[in-house]
């Protein structure tokens, strides 16, 4: 079956360890586009944190698409028209903010404009997220948060061992209400229950009239598992976590070895 749609994660997949797109990866993506394959970047990043790479790959028309916030938003790449939106409410923020204090983990939340934290001593992991996404940080107490804000995602953030311990304390009932997914060892993302990269790939493929078996997904971390499971061919990078590799149909080379290029040349 011919592959017609490929979703590609950004950090640890499209990018090498210096946050660069290797020339071989860029060249192969452009070649596949010329062959008619739809290339879609799919990331936990907000839109603004993806745009530099979208532009570098020239995926900028309204027949190109972007999956951001781990599937909370699917947009056209040209006009940024929102096609799919799964956001969180203020009441849900209050619930998860209280949870973060109960389980001993820091928290920040994001909308389309900024990162918001109630931690006066701002976590270095909030600073890291700001650096990765090019989004400003805004200090807001819980009481100062806008009740009408549409929250794209919330993130429990901490040292990996602290976050692992906190994750074990999350009540089972909350897993029925939210999607919890690790995007990095120090980031545990909290999403609308309907938001995932896999659901976004499904929705986009249906919109484009592309069959499930005509799709491929490439990723490296646990937030990529849902799209690896949905895709006709799910590809884990050579540098992917062991858990992610368990859900892959194929294992590529690492992000330092142009693993995206290898996957596209070999299976697409």
Automatic annotation (TrEMBL):
Record-linked InterPro entries: Cof, HAD-like_sf, HAD-SF_hydro_IIB, HAD_sf
GO molecular function: magnesium ion binding; phosphatase activity
Designated name of the protein: HAD superfamily hydrolase
Pfam families from the UniProt entry: Hydrolase_3
Top-level taxon: Bacteria
One GO cellular component, as annotated: cytosol
């Amino acid at each position: 079956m011919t592959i017609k749609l490929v979703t590609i994660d950004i950090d640890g997949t499209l990018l090498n360890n210096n946050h660069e797109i290797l020339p071989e990866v860029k060249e192969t993506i452009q070649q596949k586009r010329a062959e008619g394959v739809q290339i879609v970047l799919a990331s936990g990043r907000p839109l603004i944190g993806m745009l530099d790479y979208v532009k570098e790959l020239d995926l900028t028309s309204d027949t190109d698409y972007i999956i951001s916030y781990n599937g909370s938003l699917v947009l056209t790449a040209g006009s940024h028209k929102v096609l799919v939106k799964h956001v969180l409410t203020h009441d849900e923020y209050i619930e998860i903010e209280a949870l973060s204090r109960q389980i001993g983990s820091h928290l920040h939340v994001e909308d389309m404009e900024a990162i918001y934290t109630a931690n006066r001593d701002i976590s270095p992991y909030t600073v890291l997220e700001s650096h990765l996404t090019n989004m400003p940080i805004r200090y807001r107490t819980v009481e100062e948060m806008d009740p009408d804000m549409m929250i794209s995602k919330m993130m429990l953030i901490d040292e990996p061992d602290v976050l692992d311990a906190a994750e074990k304390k999350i009540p089972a009932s909350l897993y029925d209400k939210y999607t919890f997914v690790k995007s990095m060892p120090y980031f545990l993302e909290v999403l609308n229950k309907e938001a995932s990269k896999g659901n976004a790939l499904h929705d986009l493929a249906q919109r484009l009239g592309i069959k499930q078996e005509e799709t491929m997904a490439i990723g490296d971390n646990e937030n990529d598992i849902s799209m690896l499971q949905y895709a006709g061919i799910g590809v884990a990078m050579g540098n992917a976590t062991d858990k992610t590799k368990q859900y892959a149909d194929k294992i590529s080379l690492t992000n330092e070895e142009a693993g995206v290029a290898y996957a596209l040349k070999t299976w697409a």
